[in-house]
Amino acid sequence: MPTLPLLTHISLDKIVAWQKGAPISVEKFLADAAHLAVLLPSGKHILNICRDRYHFAVGLAAAIISNKVSLLPPTHTPEMVQQLQAFSAEVFCLHDNDDCTIALPKLRYPAMPEHAASNMAIPQIDAQQLVAIVFPSGSTGTPIPHAKKWGSLVRNVQAQDARLGLSENIGLSENKSYSIVGTVPPQHMYGFESTILLPLQSGNALSSTQPFYPADICSALQETPAPRILVSTPLHLRLLLDAELEVPELVLALSATAPLSNSLAHKAEASLKAPLLEIYGSTETGQIATRRTTQGEAWQLFPDVRLTQMIEHICAVGGHLESPVPLSDIIESTSAEHFLLHGRTQDLINIAGKRSSLANLNHHLNAIDGVIDGAFFMPDEASHDHVTRLSACVVAPSLTASNLLAALRTRIDPVFLPRPLLFVEALPRNSTGKLPREALKKLIANHVNPQHKTTEQSTTQPAQKMQNKRL
Q: Which fold has domain 3-296?
């Protein structure tokens, strides 16, 4: 059967990671993975929640060479852990923190011994080997598993590498490699691909850090050598730019997990002095397209990936995909290689015969000066006779409800004005910047007046009361 290497660095002394400013060689990485593999429990499935990105990568490699499967759920809540146990009774947890409370059999990431130099070989992995099962972010109810084979994952990040030109080391000397710093967790599909598999499969180096706050992002970049690539999200980028800190030099920034506005893209490129590429993909497909947002709205598909209409859905086919995968977005193909994105199919809204989408409304809300973050919410329809009202939560400490509604009126049809509009200190986004529907629903339920209000004056009152309330 065809095999593919665990990593593509050309020699054992090449740097594969940076941890607290210190380089880690391929040889050290392989020795650590082999040491951990011996310690892994007998169970087939592993929940790898290591916070240190290098520890996660070693855990992944140890699982692969032991023919175990890494489970990558969107959260690690008690409910999700119970669902994982229902999915796999012998799942165990690999962690690297003293306060791990996961209710599973646990293995703490060990202190690694000093390894004597050896002429070990880079493992060759069967392309058909199942190495991971991922679950969609923000999913509710029983998680839907998506199996990922080694060959498909490698082909996917090889396509990303080709698009970004990393393995060509453009403009780099022979001994240089890119340092890839990520603000997204490695357990998330985007982080898994772009901060773990990409450096392993392009001969570059990952940073062990997982910074969130602007000062931590700058510190993580500073402790890794140039040339640097930042893998981030619109939320992290917005916070970083608003902090107005001096960001260490970058050669490239990547963004995903949520739509990137054109204004934020231009601001980011001007501030970071580096191109910013946006990645399109999903848990089901992996990444399949990119665009440089400042240069146009059209997305360019990865080589050999195509979109095709199948019954009611647009499907992605070809490339690393082993079978056609339905997409959950409203897509307009403009050529064989390009398409426009018009929001998610489940985001479509029809009120009084007028149509829009949550993505479109959120775009207009977040484009208003003074809005730091905001999101619309469409409740489940109670009955056909009940008039369903849009709600919205917004972080905008410098605005009043009347100011914000006036600005919205110039951008959207009045039928889509939120009732109620709640001012909050922060939205309940997860570590990747996504906003799960259930989290937003609970936030609104906890703060909206249950008494139905129909006049604009009454709908603005909750917003004014919430403006200074700490959540």
A: Rossmann fold (3.40.50)
